[in-house]
Amino acid sequence: MKRIFLLSAFLSILSFSASAQIDEEIMDRRPQTTAPVADDAVQKGNWLVGASIGNIGHNFKSETFNFDIEPRAGYFVSDNAVVGASAQLGVSIYDGGESWRYGVTPFVRYYFPEGAASTHRWFGEALLGFAGSSEEDSDGDAVVSRVYGVRAGYAHFVAQNVALEGTLNLIRSSANIDIDDSASTGLSLAVGLQIYLPGRGNQ
Question: Which distant-in-sequence residues (6+ apart) come within 8 Å of 200 by Cβ?
Fold first, then answer.
C-alpha cells in the first residue's frame, strides 16, 4: 500500500512538472505585447519617427469617406522632451469628387515622469503650423491657413524601440471654412505607431 502511495505521488509530481514546463514553453511562444524600455526610449539624443492615423470613417448619410495620416519625426532635446515636425495628409471622397487636405505642423511633446512605468508613458503635445485643402468652393475659403492645437496621449511599448500610441486631439484651423472666415475647432481620436531610435551616444 505504501509503495502504491509513493508511486502515485511520484507520478503526480512528474505530471505537474511536465505541465508547468509545457505552459512555460507556450508562454515563451506568445507574441510580445510589452517591453520594459520606456525610460531608455525617451532619453536625450534619441530620435522619434512614425505616423498616426485618425478620422477614418464613412458617413452613410452624406456618402463621404474620410482618411487622415500624419507622419512625423522628432528629436529628444532632453530627457522626456521632443521637438519635431509632422505632415498632415488627408482625403475625403464623396459622390461627385474628392478633396485633399495637407499641412505642416512643428510640435513639442513632453513625456510625463509622473505616473510613468517601465512599459508605458503618458505625454502631452502642442503644435502650430499651416494647413489647407484642395477645396475652393466658397469665397470664404482659405487655401492655406494657420492650424494649432494640443494633444494628450498614451504610449505603450510593445518592443524595445516600438510603441503603440493613442491620442485625444483638440485642433483649431481656419483653412477651408466656408462660413465667413471663422475658424473651426475639432476634437478627435487617433492611433499611431512610433519608433524610438537611439542616438549615437545612447546605443
Answer: 45
| Nearest alpha-carbon partner for 39 in 166, 169, 141, 160 | 160
Tell me how far the alpha carbon of residue 98 is from its chain's centroid. Answer: 27
pLDDT digits (tens, 9 = 90+) for 71-99: 999 999 999 999 999 998 888 887 777 87
Tell me whether residue 102 is exposed, middle or buried, using C-beta atoms within 10 angstroms of its C-beta: 0 to 12, 13 to 18, 19 or more: middle
* Distance, CA of 164 to CA of 32 (rounded, Å): 13
Q: What is the pTM of this model?
A: 0.74
Q: Write the pLDDT tens digit of every residue in 9-68.
A: 555 665 555 455 545 554 455 555 566 777 888 999 999 999 998 776 655 665 778 788
The backbone region for 55, taken as left when phi is positive above 0, alpha when psi lies in -120 to 50, beta otherwise, is left
DSSP 102-165: EEEEEEEEEE-STT--SSEEEEEEEEEEEEEES---STT--SEEEEEEEEEEEEEEEETTEEEE
Sequence spans of domains, the chain: 1-30, 37-197
- Say how far apart CA 34 and CA 159 lie, in whole Å: 6
CATH match for 37-197 among 1.10.3720.10, 2.40.160.20, 2.60.40.1470, 3.90.170.10:
2.40.160.20
